[in-house]
User: Fold this.
Amino acid sequence: MRQALDRERLREGQAFYLHNRVETIDEVAVRLRGLCPQMRFEVAHGQLEEGELESRMMSFLRGDADVLVCTSIIESGIDIPAANTLIVERADHFGLAQLYQIRGRVGRSHERAYAYMLYDAAGSLTPEGAQRLAALSDFTELGSGFQIAMRDLELRGAGNLLGDEQSGHVAALGFELYMQMLDEALAAAEAGEGDGAGAAEWEPVRLDVDIDAYVPAEYVGYEQAKIDLHRRIAGAREVADIELLREELKDRFGEPPEPVENLLALARARIKLGAAGARAVAVRGGRLSVAPVELDLAAVRELRERLPGAIYESGRSQVVVRVAEEPRQRFADIRAAADAILAVSGLQG
Assistant:
């Protein structure tokens, strides 16, 4: 540690020493002064008065101090090109994204920068802490933020966004509609003027059913792979795409469990209803409503043979079918209705 600080002093640079405990930070500064008596130290942390903190930071910025002993207050908003050595105590206690941000405080000039991540004996490292430090060591190139973010996602997980419990806006919209809106927004942005010219003509059907339909962590352990699978399922336009994806899942991860089979079946039904021309699908009061679906008299008769009790409201171009209240049977009824509506719509013309 003394060697690292002396090297920075000899090239007339500055250093950060990060100790993330306000209660003991002054003691650490005293210890460092004893270790390197020829160097000037300044202390900064978030519990200082605003004016005092600003005064100390400006002192360091002017070069009145060689080393800033600080907390993680330097994580963002600090740009001091003269500071090109960073020492972080107990680095294993920080998150990966936080460490990446802190490491970015050095290396902001033409000088070579050094970042030292200190930790107690290797035996005291948790597996997660060791993985975070290893990731930081692996990705040192300029622009490696995306790789760091993906590794952080793998280590910490993505929460319940892709699980059986959701929260926030995605829960209100449904993951498929969320992905559709995201794709449309990206397409509009690529179009330039937001006039809709870049939006995809294909519009997937929104289909909300009270059934467990997701990719369990026990089946696919990697969050990045789960996100990719959900994206591919939501973006599929042909039933054949879903069948190929199922075969791929079986080959890579084994026989799909029930929630995954439900997710694939839901995608098949959505695609079939969309192929029949439907855009709005709703289940209310034990009835499935699908619209708009244009059917002639022959197609209506065929629909009633396939789905006894089905009603076609020609004024609204809407098919109404009674479905079961029990979620599993209702899901089966919806899939049968999708098959029948697609079949009869294909008989016309």
About this structure: Strands lie at 14-18, 41-44, 67-70, 83-88, 114-117, 280-284, 287-291, 311-313, 318-322. The longest strand covers residues 83-88.
